[in-house]
Structure formats: C-alpha cells, structure tokens
Amino acid sequence: DKDYLIAPSILSADFAMLGTEVDNVLEAGADVVHFDVMDNHYVPNLTIGPMVCKALRDHGVTAPIDVHLMVSPVDASIADFIDAGASFITFHPEATNHVDRSLQLIKAGGCKAGLVFNPATSLDICEMVKDKLDIILLMSVNPGFGGQAFIPATLDKARAARKFIDDNKLDCRLEIDGGVKVDNIKEVAEAGVDMMVAGSAILKAPRTVEAYKETIDAMRK
Ligand code: DX5
Ligand code: ZN
C-alpha cells in the first residue's frame, strides 16, 4: 500500500482563528499543513508570511509545514521561512534568476526542496536539478486563489512527472495543488501523485474536526 500525504491548504482557513483551524485539521487526520505565500507581485493576491509560520510553531504545531512560495524574488523568503520553522519549501522556477542556488539554499537550511510548475510551464528543468529535488509540485490551477476548477491536462503532466521520478529512481514526492476534491482525487492518485493539496474541499463550514475528518477520510478512501 502506497503512502499518500494529504495537505490541507490553510488559504481556505478562517484566518481569525488560524491556530484552532490548523489544530482541527491535523486532529482530523491531515498529514501536512500547506502554507500558501503570495506577494501581490508574482501572483495577484497577498496572503501570509514567515511571522505566521513562526506563530503556528509557537502555538505547538509539530506537523510538517509545506511552504508554497508564490513570490518573486524567492531567496530572501527562503531564508525567512527556514528561520520560521518551515519543513518543505517549494518555489516557481520562473520566479528566481538562479534556480539551482535557490534549491541549494533550502537544502542548506535543512528543509526539503521542491519546484512548482504552473499549468503552462514545462517540466524540462527537472532534468538539470534532479539530484536536488525532494518535491515536484504540479499546479492544477493558475496560482493565486483557492476554489478554482481543476485543469484536466494536469493529469498527463502528472503521469510524465511520475515516469521521470521512477525512471531516475528519485526519492521525490509528486504533489498536486488546485481543485482537488473527493470526486477527482482517485484519478489524481492513479496518475502517480502521492501528495495532495486541498483547500476549499476540506476547510469550509461548519469548520469542525468531525467535518474535516469526514472529507479527509473520504479522500483517503
Ligand atoms: C493556489 C494555491 C492553492 C489553493 C488550493 O494558488 O496554491 O494551494 O489554496 O485551493 P483549492 O484546493 O481550493 O483549489
Ligand atoms: Zn499552494
């Protein structure tokens, strides 16, 4: 049996009670906290930064925090999130001038490193940095907002990424982000993805542990 990670995106949390939301979604069975960082420059939205990541650690969150950087440039934020207690840090290759250096910075800080690919971005660069990739993250929506519809062409891209990981025998997670729901997660898993982000599908009213658990259990099933 394969091990899958479910990573709720706190972009859809109630930010007025973020600590409770994260506690609840972890109690409901989430494996990882997906943390979306947007700078109103690389993407047309503005969210949360390293202070909030540090606050979750101080609150007592010990689960892995998966920091998805949608910022440009990236290197200063990498340093800040290493200090703030991030576990995984991923960034978009087009958002930095020096992809290899940015990956090295993440790994030197003791975090797992990954690249994020927009729907229209090719995976070609993976070949050049394959020894440094712990995660390949495929966007199945255009980054910037929660609640968008899954782009079906991502499934072919996932199969290609899975083949690349297996052919090269990489110890690398294949993550997907955007529009993942109970009714399409099986297809996503069958395409070779082993780490699923889901925001609006999980974090919604009534915002209780029981409701979150029901969705996460259904996704695992
Ligand atoms: C989009 C973010 C996603 C988003 C996913 O830019 O990277 O993590 O929160 O939200 P849903 O699951 O609602 O598409
Ligand atoms: Zn994300």
UniProtKB/TrEMBL annotation:
Cofactor note: Binds 1 divalent metal cation per subunit.
Keyword flag Cell division: no
Binding locations of substrate: S9, H68, G144, F145, G146, G147, G179, G199, S200
Superkingdom classification of source: Eukaryota
EC number(s) stated in the UniProt entry for this protein: 5.1.3.1
Gene Ontology CC terms, in alphabetical order: cytoplasm
Cofactor or coenzyme needed: a divalent metal cation; Fe(2+); Zn(2+); Co(2+)
Catalysis: reaction(s): D-ribulose 5-phosphate = D-xylulose 5-phosphate
Alphabetical keyword list: Carbohydrate metabolism, Cobalt, Isomerase, Manganese, Metal-binding, Signal, Zinc
Gene Ontology molecular functions: D-ribulose-phosphate 3-epimerase activity; metal ion binding
EC category name: isomerase
Residues that, per the record, bind a divalent metal cation: H34, D36, H68, D177
GO biological process, one term: pentose-phosphate shunt
Positions of the catalytic residues: D36 (proton acceptor), D177 (proton donor)
Family to which the UniProt record says this protein belongs: Belongs to the ribulose-phosphate 3-epimerase family.
Name under which the protein is recorded: Ribulose-phosphate 3-epimerase
Organism in which the protein naturally occurs: Fragilariopsis cylindrus CCMP1102
Native organism taxonomy: Eukaryota, Sar, Stramenopiles, Ochrophyta, Bacillariophyta
